[in-house]
Amino acid sequence: MKRRLKLFIIALCTVLLFTACGQQSSYGFSVTFLDVGQGDSALISCDGQYMLIDGGPASVGDTVYDYLRDNGIDHLNILAISHIHDDHIGGIERALSYASTEDIVLCNTDKYSLSASDESDNDRETFAKVEQQLSVNDAKIVVPNKGAKYKLGSAEVEVVDVGDDLSKNESLVLLVTYGQTTFLFTGDIEHNMEERICEDKNDNFPVTLLKVSHHGSDTSTSIRFLRMLEPKYAVISVGSNNRYNHPSEQTLSRLDQADVKVYRTDKDGNITVRSNGTDLDIQTSK
């Protein structure tokens, strides 16, 4: 009797151990929103493949470089550039000096548009440096079509909108799907693009997590957009005490009214979101 009880306890412990290990390793997908100050950068990992979306401003290029180096990520399966403003592309040149291989490079434009009134000389110079580094890495920008899809391991990356590179803050908008969980990356889109996406999706486009556009500016994240998306979580990539007063109180209020759990890089540091295809596990570095 004692021997049977002992064997039963051993078997039970073994089952629990394997169950715990299975649960721990069941998160096959993760996205880390890097704390790059007043800018955007996110790294997605799925089944040993990697995608970098934006690289923050040039002043924090070492932040992105160090994260890639510390995690041994020298090959990006996809590099996505939402648009060519310095606070999104500045750190990419430095990052690509470590991740020296990029299979696919996506952007809403493959040229600097002289007629884009909001683009500064700094943006122009930064974009030229990124182009040069891509050339060194034997890679080039592809402007995708709306609706194009790409694989990242067992995850899918869909181009929701490409935007107009001649218009202020229009950006590449990407939906990343892993199992039943979805992540929407919006760059710096404003109300005009949000309205266009709402029309395209017939106001029915639920997502699990929203990367809040334009660092939480009041020019984005409209009530209609939030009602369509119904996100459970949102991440705002924003610098502490920034001169733009981002995120705006109006945007934070709309997110609160929509019952969205909000994370912010200025308060939470790096934000790592893991998915097992059904549930999310969110951890912060602060």
From TrEMBL:
Q: Which UniProt keywords apply?
A: Signal
Chain ranges of the Metallo-beta-lactamase domain: 38-240
Name the domain of life. Answer: Bacteria
Q: Does the keyword Signal apply?
A: yes
Q: Which InterPro entries match?
A: ComA-like_MBL, Competence_DNA_uptake, Metallo-B-lactamas, RibonucZ/Hydroxyglut_hydro
From the UniProt annotation, give the residues forming the signal peptide. Answer: 1-22
Recorded hits in SUPFAM superfamilies, A to Z, give:
Metallo-hydrolase/oxidoreductase (SSF56281)
**What PANTHER family does this protein map onto?**
BETA-LACTAMASE DOMAIN PROTEIN, DNA INTERNALIZATION/COMPETENCE PROTEIN COMEC/REC2
The name this protein carries in UniProt is: Metallo-beta-lactamase domain protein
